[in-house]
Amino acid sequence: MDKSDARVVWLERTVEAYETPLLRFCCALLGDAYLAEDAVQETFLRAWRGLHDFRGQAAEKTWLMRIAINVCRDTLRLSYFRRTDRRITPEQLPDPPAPLTEWDDTVSAAILRLPLKYRQAVLLHYYEGLTVPETAQALHVSESTVHRTLRKAEALLKHELEEWYHA
Amino acid sequence: MLDKELVQRSLDARLAALQPNEARRQRIVTAVLQSSATHKVKGKKIMKSRLSTGILVMLILLLSCGSVALAVGLNLFEHFGMSDPRYAQVAENTQLTTSQPVHLEDKALGQVNAYFDSAYFDGLSLHVAMAVEHQQYAEAWQPTPEELAAMAPWEDIANPPMPAMEQQDILRTWQEALQNGTPYGFRQVSVWFSDHVTTDDGIDIPPYASQPDRTEDGVYLEMREFASPLPQSLRSREELTLNCRLTSSETRLWFDGQQVYHQTLRQDAGSISGTVQRTEGMVRRMQAAWQTEDVSFTATLDVSAMAAALCVEGSGAMGNALGLDAPPSNDTWIDWWLEDEQGRTYRSALAVDPSAPLPQEASFLGTGALPESLTLHIARCTEGTASPTEIRSIPFSTVP
């Protein structure tokens, strides 16, 4: 297998493995499923272009999540994004196969309402299952900053989720 | 600590509608491979063209000798207006007075017709619609020994210089051939507009954005929007005569089972031109004056249906003029927009930079309708908060 094959195989494998996690992650960050699709495509495009720079210091998933965060931040900075009504917010997505319990509904809504810097840390660590060092790599901050951010996010969520929060 | 299982289950349930989708995955893979190829071409990483008229597609340039009147048909502003209502609103003011198309007879493409279809010019903004009939063609192809000898091996085999292609079946077969180590090749012939549109006296008008489209029968359409305000020397002209060069190219790729060979042949394919009259009475000047902490500021607005150009003057920085008491934090930003008497919004083309020293200019995208009055709204937006918090609104009055 030559390098060209390897790259295409890599692309197809990573798209298959991470397309849905990235789509959900970007939707949770952007609050818009439609824009999330664009963000996922842009994430893979940037990953493809930067593949030769990927040396494996970070796990593949961490690396892709880091790119996705940058893509979403770029999208959030765009003026049109701020002035445009969201087309498909998480609340407007089709109903899941099993109805959301009140518990799940409240927790997910509270997470999606968190300010961006807390939401992205919670999504990476708790939702995507990245370790604190991996979350720090993805966010390009120190591990202590991740700890502080997660503690603050927990405090914010605790305020909203008094009944369900596990101390 | 939060419960990971709880977070994952609740968000998975909330986002369950976002399921794996094979069609979407294919779109992503195709888009990445195609965009990567386009990126390469734009980055000039491809081999230099070896122009050889003997090998090049037989192009017979049949440039029209004089200006011809445009046929009255479906205006492309109406076409693009279906997705962007601004264009539909100004469509009646977009007919060109003259248009000089390019006709090419190409073996692969057939009869190529390229032309400016319509344009809108009001002194402040310029939008131009153009089209190419029979713009692209690709086919499976195997070089003769002589043709192969003229091609260059592509050393970075992981990144062959793929052209942007409409024919997905050829792209897919190419990828499969690379993967399976089987010989395959194709050639693609296309005609492209230059990125540069110039006036007849040589002013290169800076573009702002372009929106491509393609009809069902393969006609390539493009709406090109130019940066507003236009260069000072163009604003007062009664008409603009525009020129745009065309390039025809043939990209050849051959994989012999082990090595990729490549060749791109390019040739100037003439220049289209067209004349657009200025739409009269479509620019208004408005002004405003206000004080922030006893410091006076003034602003002028040049407004048309398609754009607004704002100039804020005074001492200090933009943040002082807008009444910002502190720089925005990581989770906040300052947004601004113009609102007309009917509640229509002029979006800002760029975000506010509170630290920018005055005077500062900014541009806004129009709504397609010329407003009677405008109010500038400045608001602080906070991530996670649905509605921005308005800091100040500044009404503008029309200058008689």
Task: Record keyword descriptors for this entry.
A: 167 residues, mainly alpha, 8 helices, globular, B: 400 residues, alpha+beta, eight-stranded antiparallel β-barrel, six-stranded antiparallel β-sheet
What count of helical segments of chain A does DSSP give? 8
Number of helices of chain B: 8
Whole-number average pLDDT of chain B? Answer: 81
Low-confidence stretches of chain A: 79-87
Which runs of chain B of at least 5 residues are low in confidence (pLDDT < 50)? 38-73
Structural class of chain A comes to mainly alpha
In whole angstroms, the N-to-C terminal distance of chain B is 65 Å
Number of strands of chain B: 20
Rough outline of chain A: globular
What order do the SSEs of chain B take from the amino end to the carboxyl end, as H and E? HHEHHEEEEEHEHEEEHEEEEEHEEEEE
Percent strand of chain B: 35-45%
Shape of chain B: globular
Helicity of chain A, in percent? over 70%
Quote the distance from N terminus to C terminus of chain A.
53 Å
> Largest beta sheet of chain A, briefly?
none
Give me the secondary-structure category of chain B.
alpha+beta
Computed Rg of chain A: 17 Å
Which protein chains are joined by the largest interface, and how many residues does each one contribute? Answer: A-B, 67 and 56 residues
Explain briefly what this protein structure is.
The complex is a heterodimer of chains A (167) and B (400). With 167 residues, chain A is mainly alpha-helical. Chain A has helices at 3-30, 33-49, 60-77, 79-83, 102-113, 116-127, 132-139, 143-160.
Structure description:
Chain A has 167 residues and is mostly helical. Chain A is built from eight helices and no strands. The radius of gyration of chain A is 17 Å and the shape is globular. Chain A starts with a helix and ends in a 7-residue tail after the last helix. The model of chain A is unreliable at 79-87 (pLDDT under 50). Chain B has helices spanning 4-14, 22-42, 76-81, 85-90, 145-149, 168-180, 232-235, 318-321, and strands at 60-61, 98-100, 102-106, 110-121, 126-133, 136-140, 152-153, 184-199, 207-214, 220-226, 239-255, 260-277, 284-292, 295-303, 307-313, 332-340, 345-348, 360-365, 374-382, 389-398. Chain B is 18% helix and 42% strand. The model of chain B is unreliable at 38-73 (pLDDT under 50). In chain B, the strands form three sheets. In chain B, strands 13-14-15-18-17-16-19-20 form an eight-stranded antiparallel barrel. In chain B, strands 1-3-4-5-10-9 form a six-stranded antiparallel β-sheet. In chain B, strands 2, 6, 7, 8, 11 and 12 form a six-stranded antiparallel β-sheet that branches. At the A-B interface, α1, α2, α4, α5 and α6 of A face α1, α2, α6, β16 and β17 of B.
